[in-house]
Structure prediction request, 466 residues.
Amino acid sequence: MNETGDKTNDTQPCCCSCSSAPQSSCDCGAEEEILSPPVIRDTGGSLTWADRFDHGAARWGYRRMHHRVPPGLYRLGSPSPDAPVFASANYTLSFDALRSSLAGTDCFILVLDTKGINVWCAAGKGTFGTDELVRRIAVTRLGEVVRHRTVIVPQLGAPGIAAHEVLKRSGFRVQYGPVRASDLPAYLATGVATPPMRRIGFPLRDRIVLIPVELVQALPLTLLAAVLLGVFIDGLAALRVIAAVGAGTVLFPALLPVLPTKDFTTKGLFLGVLAMLPFAATDLSAPAAGIAPYLQAAAGLLLFPAVTAYLALNFTGCTPYTSRSGVRREIFRYTRVLAGMALGGIALAAILGITLVVNG
Amino acid sequence: MAFDSYTENTLRYFPERCVNCGKCSSVCPHAVFAAGDERALLSRWESCMECGACMKNCPVQAIEVESGVGCAQAMIHAALTGGEETCGCCGEEEGGSDGACCSGWE
Ligand code: SF4
Ligand code: SF4
Prediction:
C-alpha cells in the first residue's frame, strides 16, 4: 500500500486481532505466528496523506476499531543488530506518532497487539502488558534479530508492564522512554528522560483533539432532543439544548483549567449556568405577563446546566490526571444533585405549560 | 477545599521495603515519587491518579494502590448494570459503556 506497511483497515487475516476472545480459544491459533525466519515489515518515518486522513477519521471516532496496524516487528530505515527497539501499540495514531518522531533513526519497532487501542488506555486495561510484550518478543524472535537485550517502552505503557517480570521471562530489559514520542530524539541523544519528559500535562492542544469524539458521541441524542423541543415548545428551547451540549463537549475541554473549582461537575455547572444566562435574559425581557417568564428562566437554569455538568463529569475519563477515588467521590457527591436539578427543571417547565394552557 | 474530590487517594507506600531501584520515580507521570538517597520519597502524594504504574514496576511490593480507570462513564455504567467497570472506548466491542474517550489519544 505505502511505506506504513499493509495496514489492516479491512483485511485483517487473523481473527485474534478483531475479537476480544482469549488467544487460546482462537481458531487460527497463536502458533501460526511463530514464523521462520522472523518476519520484519518495513516502515518509514514520514506520514502520507492517507495516514493523516486515517488520523482524522480516528479522532472523529469514525470506524473506531479500524485504525490498526498489524502487530509484529517493523524496521525503520536500515537498522543494524545493535539498533534500538521501541515498543508501541497497534493503533495507527500510536504507531505513527512513534515512527514520525523517529524519522531518520535506524531502529526497530515492536508493535504489540492492543486491539487497536492507544498505549495509555491499553496499559490501563492490561492489553499493553507484560504477557503481550513477552509473547511478542518470542513470536517475532527479537532475540535473534538484535544483539542487545533492551526494549524501550513508552512511559505511559508502564501501568501494564512489570519491567522486572519482562526481564525474568524474556531476558529483555525494559527501559522506559519519555511520555511523549516527540521527545524521543532528545532522549536518544542524551540517553536520559529529563523530569519534564517524564511528566504528563494536559495542554490546550491535547484537550482540543478530544473534542471531535465528544461531539460525535453526544450528537444523536442532542439532535433528537433539539428536534423534539423545537417541535413541541419552540426554537429557543432547541437552541438551549444545543448550547448546553456545546458547552459540555466543546467549551469545557477548551476551558478546563480556567474554570473555577477542582471538581469537574462544579466546573461544568458553572459553565452550564453561564451558557444559559443569555437565554434567561431573553426570557425575562419577554413582554409576557405574570410569572411565566420567571418560570421559564428558572426551568432553563435548572435543567440545562445539569446536562452540561454531566458531560463535564464524563470528561474525567479523558484526562490523564483524575484518580478513580476522586471521580467516584464526585459521582457520589453530585449525581443526586444533578438529577434533582434536571427533574426540578422539567417540573417547572410542566407547570409553565399548564399555566399557559389554563390562561389560554 | 470545597468542591475538591481529589484530595485523597488509595496510594500507600511502605518505605521500609524499598530497595531504591528508582523505578517508581521514573514511571510516575505526576512526579508523585522522587528519587532519594536511600529510598524513594513520596513527595506529591495528592497528585496521584491511581494509574498503578509504580506498583506494577516496584520489584519488592513497596507500593500499593487501587488502580483503575478514573472514568465516570465506566463507573456510572458499572453502577447501573452491576457489571464491571470498563469503558467501551477501549476495545470491548460488546459490553462496557460506549465511551470513545480513548480515540483521541496517541
Ligand atoms: S499510581 Fe500512577 S500516578 Fe500514582 S504514584 Fe503510582 S505512578 Fe504515580
Ligand atoms: S520501585 Fe519500589 S523498590 Fe524501587 S524505588 Fe520505588 S518503592 Fe523503592
